[in-house]
Write a structure and sequence with these properties.
Elements (H helix, E strand, L loop, with lengths): L1 E2 L11 H7 L2 E2 L6 E3 L2 E6 L2 E7 L2 E3 L2 E4 L5 E4 L4 E8 H21 L7 H17 L6 E9 L2 E7 L5 E3 L2 E3 L3 H12 L6 H18 L7 E7 L2
Antiparallel strand pairs: 1-2, 3-6, 3-9, 4-5, 4-13, 5-14, 6-7, 8-9, 9-10, 10-11, 11-12
Organism: Phaeomonas parva
GO biological process, one term: proteolysis involved in protein catabolic process
Protein name: Proteasome subunit beta
Length: about 220
């Protein structure tokens, strides 16, 4: 959807002014997209896995793209599926927040829960402006020494869970997570579960790849 910029001139801008300012576009359909993010809690931490593919439509265009990043000096991680340019914009916002937190130097450091709620506010703000960031975002880390895992979608809906799978691939691997995830499972079991989920996605999902990035946040 195209929208003309509102100007403070007393009369409507002419063709030359419109050309100089130009119309701006809203994201109405994602173009370059990342696939499913899968994450689980385990005894003492959180683990997340993504593949490295960014698809142009259904074309496997970029095959070595990082989609999971550290936050809070490694005490949290963020990953996302959906429009990759929107995720890059969100990462820019998070970098600015991290710089503000560092410069404040008040003895308090933002953690996974704070970044999670900030992302929720950003997503809801963009949605309210009819210009959503077209992503499903997963944030993991530690909160009060316990594993924390939450997700936020493109309209700002958020919830916390013991295991998560975003996007269309979530319909494929959520039954696997429900049947195999156990409270208190160790790191090796969590990794094996995530790898099995990505293996099934590679077989069953047309925009999945057999190259993955795995990240964890542990209490130790």
């Amino acid at each position: 959807m195209l929208c003309a910029r509102v100007r403070s001139a007393p009369s409507a801008p002419g063709p030359a002014a419109q050309q100089a300012g130009g119309p701006y576009k809203r994201t109405t359909y994602p173009i370059c997209t990342g696939g499913t993010v899968v994450a689980v809690k385990y005894a003492g931490g959180v683990m997340t896995i993504t593949d490295t593919l960014i698809s142009y439509g259904k074309f496997a265009r970029y095959k070595d793209v990082q989609r999971v990043f550290p936050l809070a000096d490694g005490q949290a991680i963020v990953a996302a599926g959906g429009e990759h340019s929107d995720f890059q914009q969100l990462l820019h916002f998070l970098e600015e927040l991290a710089d503000e937190d560092f410069n404040r130097d008040d003895g308090y450091k933002l953690g996974a829960a704070e970044y999670y709620n900030y992302i929720r506010a950003v997503m809801y703000n963009h949605r309210s402006k009819m210009n959503p960031l077209w992503n499903d975002v997963v944030v993991g880390g530690l909160k009060d020494g316990k594993p924390f895992l939450g997700t936020v979608d493109l309209i700002g809906t958020q919830y916390e869970e013991d295991f998560l799978a975003t996007g269309f691939g979530g319909y494929i691997v959520t039954p696997i997570l429900r049947s195999r995830w156990q409270p208190g499972m160790d790191e090796g079991e969590a990794r094996a579960l995530l790898e099995d989920c990505m293996r099934v996605l590679f077989y069953r999902h047309c925009t999945a790849l057999n190259r993955v990035h795995l990240a964890k946040v542990a209490a130790d």
